[in-house]
Amino acid sequence: MARVRTTIELEETYLETTMKRYMVRTATEVDLALRHLAGQPMSRQEALAMRGTHAIADLPADDG
Questions:
Q1: Do 24 and 36 touch, CB atoms closer than 8 A?
Q2: HEC string for the chain
Q3: From residue 57, how far is each of 23, 36, 53 by CA, in Å?
Q4: Per-residue model confidence as pLDDT tens for the chain (64 residues)
Q5: CA distance linking residue 10 with residue 13, whole number of Å
Q6: Residue in 12, 56, 46 with CA at minimum distance from that of residue 30
Q7: pTM more than 0.70
Q8: Exposed / middle / buried, residue 4 (Cβ in 10 Å: 0-12, 13-18, 19+)
Q9: What are phi and psi of 26, to 5 degrees?
């Protein structure tokens, strides 16, 4: 897997929430937490449980 170096801006409250939730102390550890989350896709049951929660207000248009 190729690595890409990038700079992103994060809302401080989201960063702090992530750090508390995953008990991490540095941005590098937050990166590891994000990798962990990305590697664990939702199961069908978890996705269906979100139905009606309005997690995404407006669906993005298909680019394809």
A1: no
A2: CCCCCCCCCCCHHHHHHHHHHCCCCCHHHHHHHHHHHHCCCCCHHHHHHCCCCCCCCCCCCCCC
A3: 30, 26, 9
A4: 687 887 878 888 888 888 888 888 887 888 887 788 787 887 888 877 877 766 666 766 777 5
A5: 8
A6: 12
A7: no
A8: exposed
A9: -130, 165
